[in-house]
Amino acid sequence: MTVGKRNARHAVQRNLVKRVLREAMRLAAPGLEGAAVGSAVDIVMRLKAPFPAPAVMTLRLFKQALRAEADVLLGLVRVRLAEGAGLPESRGADPAGGAADRRTITR
Predict the structure, then answer these.
(1) 79 and 105 Cβ atoms separated by less than 8 Å
(2) What does pLDDT average to over the chain?
């Protein structure tokens, strides 16, 4: 995980983003390991948008939005891994509509 100073100026903000993403990864790990089936996978997550000002979004809403976004992206990774391993796709269609390629999943 990378959180640059350009997007989160203060160390407290960068650590908060890392904590939320780390928790999302921890909870998604069993599903990702099951979908990877014998292949090594590195997942890189990085904050692309700037940390919102307190007047724009509360900290609680930001954490909820960040977690929801991380969960969606990790779900996409799981689906892509399952497709690559020949496993049946679970839990519906691809939320991105198939727009992302196999190597880079962005939203």
Answers:
(1) no
(2) 79
Q: Which pair of structure tokens corresponds to residue 84?
A: 């690559």
Q: Which residues touch 72 (CB under 8 Å, ≥6 apart)?
A: 95, 107
Contact 78, 33 (CB under 8 A): no
Q: Quick one: which H or E segment has residue 79? A: helix 59-85
Check pLDDT > 90 for residue 32.
no
Residue 96 to residue 107: CA distance in whole angstroms: 8
pTM: 0.70
Q: Is the pLDDT of residue 51 over 60?
A: yes
The CA distance from 75 to 85, in Å, is 15
Closest alpha carbon to 14 in 22, 23, 4: 4
pLDDT range class, residue 101, cuts 50, 70, 90:
very low
What Å distances lie between residue 53 and 6, 50, 84, CA to CA?
A: 14, 9, 40
Q: Report angle CA 56, 61, 64 to the nearest 5 degrees.
A: 140
